[in-house]
Design brief:
Helices cover 56% and strands 0% of the residues. The chain has helices at residues 8-22, 40-57. The N and C termini lie far apart (29 Å). It is mainly alpha-helical and 59 residues long. It has one domain. The protein is built from 2 helices and no strands. The longest helix has 18 residues, at 40-57. It is globular. The protein binds zinc ion (ZN).
Length: 59
Amino acid sequence: MTQQTLTPAQEAFGVLADHCILCTGCKVDLDRLDEPPECPEAEALYRAWFILWRKEIRR
Ligand SMILES: [Zn+2]
């Protein structure tokens, strides 16, 4: 089995997605990530992902 290497942004997105699936306080629709979630923890994860993602698309 080959382990796919994820970029930091992809990893951060996975963490955010996992949180939103497991956190009962989150009602985040991952198809609409343009609207930041209201859960503080999810918002922090979202911002972390967004910063990494912006860095990656500039390459
Ligand atoms: Zn949450």
